[in-house]
Amino acid sequence: MAVQLPPKAPFVADPIELPDGRKVWVTAHTDGSIQFRVDGLPYVLTEAYLSGNPDKDKAYLTISPGKQGSSAAHNYVEELEKKNLS
Fold first, then answer.
1. CB neighbours of 30 closer than 8 A, spacing ≥ 6?
2. Of 7, 29, 66, 73, whose CB has the highest number of CB atoms within 10 Å?
3. Phi first, then psi: what are they for 7, rounded to 5°?
4. Is the Cβ–Cβ distance between 42 and 32 less than 8 Å?
5. Cα 14–38–77 angle (5° rounding)?
6. pLDDT 10s digits, 34-53
7. Which conformational region is residue 32 in: left (phi greater than 0), alpha (psi within -120 to 50 degrees), or beta?
8. Phi, psi (5° rounding) for residue 52?
């Protein structure tokens, strides 16, 4: 059986470069979904607001590189140490 690829996204924004060199990409798809990609893993979802009144509320997501005591915190510290040793 052939693998079906998702339809080509109608909108792909140029990457946004963050002050520390990481990049963020935003892609909108024809089904209404929005995809966010970010360099510098690992991340954890620390806050999400995805419902409410569509006429006055906005959706937002907050991701963190594991600094809030999550299980990703250990990996984040290891990655920083690797960068400092390079």
1. 7, 9, 10
2. 66
3. -65, 155
4. no
5. 145
6. 899 998 877 888 889 988 88
7. left
8. 130, -155
